[in-house]
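Quick one: structure tokens for this chain, please?
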Amino acid sequence: MKNIAVLIKSKERHSEGLRISAGLSLLGDKVDIFLLNEDFNVNDLPVIKNHLEMIKAVGIGLYSNFKKEGFSFISDLDIGKKMLKYDIVFFY
């Protein structure tokens, strides 16, 4: 089992980052998502809500560096420290 982090920063790629995270979890790996700096793109909310339902069902960790309902807050410094434990890091 690998530890995988998916960092999502680009507002245009929020949906894609969530979709990829859900798919990676199907391989039996431990996946954590880090939403960075800004909330989801409002235009993509219906698709994002579907992805989040699946993500929550499979137990993917949800973190953000700002206050966001359903996500655990984590500072930028702690994100950097946490990256050391991952085998693979994807950046969107």
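Helices lie at 14-25, 45-58, 76-82.
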